[in-house]
Design a protein that fits this description.
Length: 139
């Protein structure tokens, strides 16, 4: 059981429906709020400092990754954690964005530190077979 609420955002209704179905099957339907929102264009729409953690998975190849990381950091309470994961910088990966916009692992850390709101907690972490990740802490 959990007393926390998970907020998830996506631009595709199908992904939101799938998330809610899986939460329901796991007995967590009351613990998940799925909202259709383009976070790149519109931000997260949450109160500053209102979250303990944020997860940014396979999204930081956007045009303004530092701005996206900054918005996520602002949503975090002091000492909150931001988990960032992305496709490996390797053309052999079966999916993911084109290589010319796919971030290298060191770029994620550079972008996070450029927010002046995050410090490195851990990374890069190998997430086989196709991903790597970082953990950043809200300062």
């Amino acid at each position: 059981r959990t007393s926390e609420l998970l907020h998830t955002f996506d631009t595709e209704e199908g992904m939101l429906a799938q998330t809610l179905e899986r939460a329901s099957a796991a007995g967590l339907s009351g613990a998940v709020r799925a909202e259709r929102r383009d976070v790149v264009a519109d931000g997260y729409g949450v109160d500053p400092g209102s979250f303990d953690a944020a997860l940014l998975f396979n999204i930081l190849h956007c045009e303004e990754p530092v701005a996206m990381l900054r918005q996520a950091a602002l949503a975090l309470a002091p000492q909150g954690l931001l988990y960032a994961m992305h496709w490996r910088y390797d053309p052999a990966t079966p999916r993911g964005p084109p290589m010319d916009i796919r971030p290298r692992p060191e770029q994620l850390e550079e972008w996070a530190l450029a927010t002046a709101l995050l410090s490195t907690e851990r990374g890069p972490v190998d997430c086989p077979p196709w991903h790597y990740g970082w953990v950043f802490r809200r300062t």
